[in-house]
Amino acid sequence: MQFSGRKGPEDWPESELEKKRKDRRESRMHELGVVFHIMDSLEKVAAENEVTGISRVVLELGEVSTVIESYLHNCWQWAAKKRELFEEAELVVETIPARTYCEGCGQTYATVEHGKICPCCHSPDTWLLQGNEFNIKEIEVY
Ligand SMILES: [Zn+2]
Question: 35, 103, 105, 112: which is deepest, by most CB within 10 A?
Answer without folding.
Answer: 35
